[in-house]
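Q: I'm writing up a methods section and want to include an example of the input and output format. Could you take the sequence below and give the corresponding predicted structure tokens, formatted cleanly so I can copy it straight into the document?
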Amino acid sequence: MIPEMQNAFLILCLVTASIGFIIWYAFSSSLRLPVRYQIMYDANPPYVHRILRRRTLAALIYAGIPIFIIFCTCWIGNPVWSDLNISFQWTGEVARWTSIGLATVLVMSFFATKSTSSLEIYPELRVRFWRPSILILSMLSWMLYIVAYEFFYRGLLFQALLYKLDTVPAIVACTALYSLTHYFKLNRLTILSILWGSLACWLVLHTNSLWPAILIHLGLCLSTEWMSIRHHREMYVRRA
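A: Here is the clean output for your methods example:
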């Protein structure tokens, strides 16, 4: 990628990381509800729908719009996929690190969700009666959301920074922008986002693939949600 294209690519990613996040937050009304509503468990379809729309909007902002601008406009020239340096290859090394990461997050989720304090965060969907349809919709929306999130932060943004910075500064800058998207959450989540952001960048560099970051992050979100439902009796799954 020529320098002019690199500059435009970086500007696009920085604009998405800043203005894109502001737009996402502005339209995420559920994030601004009083805490007492966010820790209540009841059959609340409007709240469920807001969460699902929020995840879909994030996928559009962080994946749909950037891909459209990159490949369907001339804003950054006429790049091909290889210019982005984003790989989805699956190798033995990718499988090994993904397996290690998934095993780790499963253990973490099992013990972390036993605490009552975890209910302040998970599950995001504040539903007392979990119908199978809600479980499936939540899982699909998590998949859409996490794939887009990792594609942008560990894919587009990280690679755009690597064009202009050395490895360590690029990881620091990418992690800083990623952790800022968690500023409205509890302090421990912000700290965890810094740790995960750094580790995810390292995984992408080490394996030359986005799959470990995507699958480990998705595994964490899904296992935390499912184990929260399992561990706390105020929530349960019903067949109807």
